[in-house]
Amino acid sequence: MPFGTPPQTFNVLLSTGSADCWVTAFNVSTNKPRFFPQNSSTFSLPNPQKYLNFPSVQGIVGIDTVQFAGLSQAKLEFSFADIIENQTLAQPFDGIMGLTFTELSKSATKNPLMAAIDNSKYKLPKIFIVNHTQ
Question: Which parts of the sequence belong to the Peptidase A1 domain (predicted)?
Answer without folding.
Answer: 1-134
